Each structure stands twice: as structure tokens, then as C-alpha cells.
Amino acid sequence: MTNKEKGDANLFKRLSVFVMVRIYNLFKPVKQEKKTFEDKFEEEIYEKSLKRSDINEHLLTIYRESVETCPKLIVELGVRGGVSTFVFERVAKKCNSTLVSVDIEDCSDISDWENWHFVQKDDIEFAKEFKDWCKERNIAPEIDILFIDTSHLYQHTKDEIKHWFPYLSKNAKVIFHDTNMGFLYKRKDGSYGNGWDNKRGVIRAIEDFCEKKFNEKKEFTDKCKGFEIKHYPYCSGLTIFTKKSI
Ligand SMILES: C[S@@+](CC[C@H](N)C(=O)[O-])C[C@H]1O[C@@H](n2cnc3c(N)ncnc32)[C@H](O)[C@@H]1O
After folding, report:
1. Pocket lining: 114 vs ligand 1, CB cutoff 6 Å
2. Cβ distance 157 to 208 under 8 Å?
3. For residue range 102-122, what is the model confidence (pLDDT) as tens digits?
4. pTM attached to this predicted model
5. Angle, alpha carbons 94-106-126 (nearest 5°)
6. Would the CB of 54 count as within 6 Å of ligand 1?
7. CB 85 within 8 A of CB 91
8. Separation CA 36–CA 46 (nearest Å)
9. Torsion of Cα atoms, 47 then 48 then 54 then 55, to 10°
10. Per-residue model confidence as pLDDT tens digits over 64-74
11. What is the CATH number of domain 31-243?
12. Which residue out of 49, 91, 103, 155 has the highest number of ligand 1 atoms within 8 Å of its CB and is therefore the one to mutate?
């Protein structure tokens, strides 16, 4: 088989799976546990979470976990269509936090909230100048919520941990998305989404940091290097690190 034929076969396979997933999902109604809402932001986020994506089932968790720390400074790495930004903007409004979002692409039109800081830059390059950037704006460079959702690649995630973790405050949480990626990912409501195989890039980088292995296919809690860890396998995986001093 020539390379072109292999490419065509691969494209055909992806297209077929894409169509099959769409048809299969028609028989799986969107199901999000309806809970009582603490505030209007939770309700707005719940409404947002009814639209399926690779992150929709994590939105309320991200909001609640973030609000729990009452963050002063939130740094979001990876904006794209702004689904997570929608959540962090509400956390920031509720807690009067500073929200800094970073993306290598221009995502500046995702929000028109006047207190939102958008930085278009490679996140590793930005980490190197973060202290000066904060100083110029009179912001203490101590991150309470760090959200990591960028390339999902192993070496890049290792670099993000290396360059951003030194800025974590003593009560910080780090929220990693895409810790259980694959060609197909499963949601809690039984539906599937089309993903890609990142060769366990994000979770492997976490394993290296913690110096232990994890089974990202299952829900788990664990501890490592002064952090408590919670992991949710569905919707591409969400892993939350909480500094133990909380
Ligand atoms: C999966 S999307 C983010 C999705 C977003 N968090 C959401 O909930 O809608 C990944 C984003 O990371 C950005 N990205 C990839 N590599 C990056 C890098 N080195 N530095 C900054 N942003 C990067 C991409 O441009 C893309 O917009």
C-alpha cells in the first residue's frame, strides 16, 4: 500500500467513525445530573454543559473546585472556543479574581469582560516573563488556579509543569484536562466523542512529576509531592491537584 493509499484509508476510517459516533449519540440523550444551584453562575454553567464537547461534563466540577479556593489569581492555558474561559470568568466574577488566559492563537474576541487579560503567546515563553508581566500590572505572581489545556503533548506538558508550578500559591489547585485521551472518548451520559491518540502525553507527564503510575481509565484519588489528586476518566479526563495545606 502506498503512503497515499494509507492516508486515504485512514481518512475514510476517521470519517466513518465520526459519522457512526454522531448516529450512536442520537440515541443517548444529554444527561447532566441536575443539582440545586448555589448561584446564578452555576446555573449558567449548567446550561452551557448541556452542549456536548470534550469538556462539557467537567464544567460544573471546574467551577466548584475553583470557587472552593476563593482564588486571587487564575491562569488558564488554552482558550480556543472559550468553553473553559466561560467558567473561569464566572469564578473570577464571583471571587473578584484576576483571570489571565493564554493561547498561542488570537482568542481575544472570546470575552468582552473588561477585567479579562488575554495573552497571545506560547505558554512556556510567557511563563519565563510572567513575573515581570505581573509586576507591571501590580499583580502578585502567585497562582491559585492553574488550568492546563493546550497541546496535550508529553514534552510540552512536562515543560508546563516545570515552568508554571513554581508560581503556584500555597493553596493552589492545578486542573489538567485531557488526561484520558484517545481516538474515541466516552462521556458519563454514555455518548462518545471523536478525539485523537496523544500517546498518554498529559498523564505520562503527570506520572513523571509524581514518580508513580496511574490508571487514567478509572476514577481515582491519590497523593503526590504535597498534592492531593482527584481524577475523573470521562470526557477526555480531568485531573485535579490540590496543595495539601488547604
Ligand atoms: C483544546 S484547546 C483549549 C480548549 C479550551 N480550554 C476550551 O475549553 O474551549 C487547546 C488550545 O491550546 C492552544 N495551544 C496549543 N499549544 C499552545 C502553546 N504552546 N501555548 C499556548 N497555547 C497553546 C491552542 O491554540 C488551542 O487553542
Report:
1. no
2. no
3. 999 999 999 999 889 999 999
4. 0.91
5. 75
6. no
7. no
8. 10
9. -90
10. 999 999 999 99
11. 3.40.50.150
12. 103
The rounded distance, in Å, linking the Cα atoms of 76 and 28 is: 31
Q: Is the CB of 104 under 6 A from ligand 1?
A: yes
Say yes or no: CB of residue 110 within 6 Å of ligand 1.
no
How far apart are the CA of 127 and the centre of ligand 1, in A?
15
Strand 143-148 to strand 116-120: parallel, antiparallel, or no bridges (unpaired)? Answer: unpaired
Q: pLDDT digit string (tens) for 196-235? A: 999 999 999 999 999 999 999 999 999 999 999 999 999 9
Model confidence at 32: pLDDT above 90: no
For residues 160 and 15, which has the higher predicted lDDT (pLDDT)?
A: 160
For the CA of 177, the nearest atom of ligand 1: 6
Length of the chain: 246
Annotate 38-62 with DSSP letters as a single string.
SSHHHHHHHHHHTS-SSSGGGHHHH
Domain range annotation of the chain: 31-243
Cell numbers given for 8: 486515504
82 CB within 6 A, ligand 1: yes
Distances (CA, A) of 147 to 18, 74, 99, 175, 201: 28, 8, 11, 5, 16
